[in-house]
């Protein structure tokens, strides 16, 4: 299920990247994704900044679900970062 979600996000990402809409700073996380990070950390009941099991477990699920409601570019950025981080654990 997670891989299907990630695949769908990458497809949406390709569309978002091809969009001619300019972004102010594509490396800065947006407010929506920052809010999701904070809410997801609280919901997971652990610290994703210091605990890999948290980051790649309950937090991952909560955060990716939350950012799905954010603008596509933000969602893709967060999911890419989380996926890369968890693949290296």
From TrEMBL:
<keyword id="KW-0964">Secreted</keyword>
<keyword id="KW-0449">Lipoprotein</keyword>
<comment type="similarity">
    <text>Belongs to the RBT5 family.</text>
</comment>
<feature type="domain" description="CFEM">
    <location>
        <begin position="28"/>
        <end position="87"/>
    </location>
</feature>
<feature type="signal peptide">
    <location>
        <begin position="1"/>
        <end position="18"/>
    </location>
</feature>
<keyword id="KW-0732">Signal</keyword>
<keyword id="KW-0472">Membrane</keyword>
<keyword id="KW-0325">Glycoprotein</keyword>
<protein>
    <recommendedName>
        <fullName>CFEM domain-containing protein</fullName>
    </recommendedName>
</protein>
<dbReference type="InterPro" id="IPR008427">
    <property type="entry name" value="Extracellular_membr_CFEM_dom"/>
</dbReference>
<keyword id="KW-0336">GPI-anchor</keyword>
<dbReference type="GO" id="GO:0005576">
    <property type="term" value="C:extracellular region"/>
</dbReference>
<dbReference type="GO" id="GO:0098552">
    <property type="term" value="C:side of membrane"/>
</dbReference>
<dbReference type="Pfam" id="PF05730">
    <property type="entry name" value="CFEM"/>
</dbReference>
<keyword id="KW-1015">Disulfide bond</keyword>
């Amino acid at each position: 299920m997670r891989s299907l979600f990630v695949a769908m996000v990458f497809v949406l990402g390709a569309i978002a990247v091809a969009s001619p809409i300019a972004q102010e700073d594509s490396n800065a996380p947006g407010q929506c994704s920052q809010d999701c990070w904070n809410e997801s950390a609280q919901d997971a009941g652990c610290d994703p900044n210091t605990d890999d099991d948290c980051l790649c477990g309950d937090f991952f699920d909560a955060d990716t679900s939350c950012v799905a409601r954010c603008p596509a570019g933000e969602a893709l950025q967060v999911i890419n970062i989380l996926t890369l981080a968890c693949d290296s654990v």
